[in-house]
Amino acid sequence: MPKCSKHQLNLLRISLQKAPGLHFHSVSRYFPTFLPFFYFSSFALSPNPTPRSEPEKDEDDELSVSGKIFKSGPQLGSYKLGDATFYSLIENYASSGEFRLIEHVLDRMKREGRVLVERSFILIFKACGKAHLPGEAVKFFDRMVKEFHCKQTVKSFNSVLNVIIQEGDFSDALKFYLRVFGANKMSFQPNVLTYNLIIKVLCKLGEIDRAVETFREMALKNCNPDVFTYSTLMNGLCKERRIDEAVFLLDELQTEGCLPNPVTFNVLIDALCKNGDLSRAAKLVDNMFLKGCVPNEVTYNTLIHGLCLKGKLDKALSLLDKMVSSKCVPNEVTYGTIINGLVKQGRAEDGAHILVSMEERGHKANQYIYSSLISGLFKEGKSEDAVRVWKEMMEKGCKPNVVVYGAFIDGLCREGKPDEAEEILYEMVSKGCLPNAFAYSSLMKGFFKKGDSQKAILVWKEMMSQDARHNEVCCSVLLNGLCEDGRVREALTVWKHMLSEGIKPDVVAYSSMIKGLCDAGSVDQGLKLFYEMQCQEPKSQPDVITYNILFKALCREGNLIRAVDLLNSMLDRGCDPDSTTCNIFLGTLRDRNDPCQDGRLFLDELVVRLLKRERKLAALRIVEDMLVRCLPPEASTWFRVIQKTCKPKKIQETIDEFCKSLYGQ
């Protein structure tokens, strides 16, 4: 066996360390000690290496340094290539995503009749996943048997299926599954991982019934579902609001002796909280403790979020204390949820106290927490506190994002300080933060509120020069401001500009323009625009505000019959009247003979018609409005309201309770 000196080995180490993508230790792992010596002495130490006469393209040009070493070794008589050598090359090339070189190795192995193993293909599939090439993974899977006579098993199939799913190609994943197992000619059967993946695919595609069928099929194939199978299917059922079926699966899971984990419970708790069923969610938490499954921060965060959605902030705060006592550390999501809930209830000051508590426990507030607090404090008229929170945020090194800037600009405009808000917007732009539609529209509203419509128009022009994506929202604000200011001609110019730019007006833009035309005495033009509005997409359909604008305009002209016809159309289109609607019609009827009777009968008939259309909540709101105005409904109408909105047993219980309290029996 030829030997090399220490000097030669040192030269070899230095040379190989300089080679890109190759290290001495990685080469020495695959070669006997004499191979580097022959390779190095033949090429690197040659005093006069013979250059090629012409730069020809051959296979060596395609290979990496490690590939050239593998190829050169046998030519020098140092060793014979074995299958493990090729496997190592495939592993190296797969880890670096060198698909061309993988093809070179596979081609040579095929020519030499080498044996390929499934493990090598699984490495290639994973490389395809990293490179976002699910189609290539499928092609390699199909070539395993046809070209390389490599036996496929469920491992290689699952690997390819997972690559397709990770890429989000759920339809392709289902097609691949059906193609492989549809003919029942495979030498292998799906295992629990296969079922877990395909059930996930079916749930993502909204094919929940098929997912349930596939789940039930597992027992026929002697494949026992695990906790991940149950959790995946339960999650799919919950997203389709089939919560009872998901709860039944939890019971089945425990009956089968499969221990649920926190993820399993969290799926159900989240669904119940979103559905407003907090009592059942709380019972599930108790069930978790009974099963020895400790709730984690996701469990608590989900419950706290559900309580905040229901407005039960005191219970949410109590749960926060319980969370801490259970040694489950609250995170930014926990605090952010509670602070946001307090702000929505008009308790922004309490939210500020929670922020202090949060920071004392070592947590830093993010931009969204600050934006919620700043916005809430401004809305509650506590502008000084809002400015203080803004300054504290800056001092603590929390860089404001577009959401925080927008909240601060909007708050200053609410306080009648659009000039200060404009300075903040310029600061925002100078720091490379592009204002969004909310920031621009808030500033425009601020100037319109101040009576400076010209400045609002300048803000709109500035927005136009920055980013055209904001036009739709801001044009609506501009139209409303101009129409409120009586500048209908300019508003029409903006309207035509919107249409010429391909901007589709929303319900706010249409309503603003209709109001401007009606206030200017052009009711017919307003109606024409209204009828055009009805032919637009859903976001541009008229709402109760649009109808009320037209009711007011028609009644002002004394055209009550036309207003009533429009009210009928409103009911037919599924739009419910509100208190403003009642005010408009009652105000008109007040000038007619016998106003009290006319008004009461009009609203009474409106309630009946809503009940006939099964619009119970809208009918109850009108009844409530009638009672406030001391215009009680007819006895027959009362009967219909009770019949439609109350359950018979509850009615009798209520009557009995009333009689008991009235007669003391």
TrEMBL record:
The keyword Repeat applies. The keyword Repeat applies. The gene is LOC111433651. Keywords: Repeat. Belongs to the PPR family. P subfamily. PPR repeats lie at residues 191-225, 226-260, 261-295, 296-330, 331-365, 366-400, 401-435, 436-470, 471-505, 506-540, 543-577. It holds the Pfam family PPR_1. SUPFAM superfamilies: HCP-like. This is Pentatricopeptide repeat-containing protein At4g20090. InterPro entries: PPR_rpt, TPR-like_helical_dom_sf.
